[in-house]
């Protein structure tokens, strides 16, 4: 079996396609034949060392495919079942053994490529807009990186909930893509002051919530976009980690809330994973949310996938196919 591995932290060039052995599943485990694996910024953070890992290691925390075998005590899946997986790294591979309680059964209407591009990003969107800050009809929401994989899913979902969406993007092409997915106001942050535009759009009031996966370059401005008692949701570091923060700033800016959620914490319990996944698969299956897989590359081109992601040269989801 072939898998992408790396033996030192660094740039995309450390990713190598290697032959590895995949054994039989043990108690509570399943062996998954992988048809497609999602590529996400968490993979970049792990590869670079921002999120240090014990080496050598694999990458990829989401995949879709079929169950090949199950271990003792696994009675809710059987060989041949189409499933998606969200969990620990190692999905840049042709097959792997995974904890069976991290698998989700896939409906026939959702393809492997769609599932691989949707599970982590879609669960992230579900956690952010349904649980971290439960968005309601009439809310005005600011979403950074609106043309990204999570962003395009979230925008459509937010519109289905009745929210008004302000999105920031890096180019006119990405602005057009965001608008096509329901973004009401697309701000090209490379030439527009997004804080001034948000205040203009909201009549000076600000927004109740900001979702920010960009990090260092947008954090301070995001805080200034919030109305009193608003919530700052920071969930990524695409431009680098957010600098240390004096909590008194939150008081001075209007008694703001700040949270740094992890989707893995929110779906750590099997019941929560099933509930969140069911809601995600329902909105995707109904057509309310269409998953945009902007690019699919062969497994051997994992390094190229990382280069494209880090250069923000991708839109929608990016997947690898063994």
Automatic annotation (TrEMBL):
GO molecular function annotation: mRNA 3'-UTR AU-rich region binding; NADPH binding; quinone reductase (NADPH) activity; zinc ion binding
SMART domains per record: PKS_ER
Annotated organism of origin: Anaeromyxobacter dehalogenans (strain ATCC BAA-258 / DSM 21875 / 2CP-1)
Positions of the Enoyl reductase (ER) domain: 10-320
Cross-referenced InterPro entries: ADH-like_C (IPR013149), ADH-like_N (IPR013154), ER (IPR020843), GroES-like_sf (IPR011032), NAD(P)-bd_dom_sf (IPR036291), QOR-like (IPR047618), Quin_OxRdtase/zeta-crystal_CS (IPR002364)
Protein name per UniProt: Alcohol dehydrogenase zinc-binding domain protein
Keyword Cytoplasm set for record: no
Superkingdom, taxonomy of origin: Bacteria
Cellular component per GO, a single term: cytosol
Keywords of the record: NADP, Oxidoreductase
